[in-house]
Amino acid sequence: MKKMLPMLFFCLFCAQAGAQVPATGRWQSLSYSSAEVNARQESDYYELIRELADQGQINRNPAMLAKLRDILASLIPAATKLHPPSADWEWEIHLTSSADIDAVCFAGGKILVSEHFLLQLQLSDGEIAALLAHEAAHALASHQHEELSEARLLRDAPGNDLTLVAEQLRSDYRLQLKLSALSYQHEAEADQLGMQLALDSGWNPADLVRFYEKLARLPDRALLSRSVPLPSARLSMANGMAKYWASLPAPWHGSVAARATRIRHPDAVAMR
Fold this sequence. Notes:
By secondary structure, this protein is mostly helical.
């Protein structure tokens, strides 16, 4: 029996891939390859875009879309430093007029933002940067990948195929409830990692804090109340990180003034 243990441990290790969240170093157990998850999420993203396009609810405001692309482009160099594999991603962002979506990021850097949400909060450029940095942080931290991996372990249906797991996760409220603690952790982590990403990209800390102030004024619309940190906790985090950043010597925050005077980043890349 003892001779079987090394092989058993090897097999268990092979069944679960490991990864670490950028900056925090938190260890993740992942059941699928990144390429597999990114491909699946990309398919889901384009399916959603097509549905919204059929309803006439996609990219109806070219000026706002151009602004979103510029702001996202300003975050990409710092994102690549935080998570080097993201250098190979085809970052993409679209704007929807649907009020059913606030903002969402799919694996591989595919983002969708609601114009209704932007107008509701009356977000400035710096505040939009906070929003996009938060969404990008979900992808940089492989949150979509981790959620699917955990769903695979918790689902009560046969089969571990990624497509089956993704479809059940999208429609099964009980499975979503089981994952609410993980969702809470993901949101808190994306808040912190997103703040670091925006700060590393040179955005004004005061603008980032104001985004969380505005977010705190919204009614709680989370499907599961335990899946999102309290607004007061999110605002406290933003204030704490901004104060810490301000205490650092140059050049750590030396690019804030430059960011305040222009949107387009010198390293901006072409995006769809």
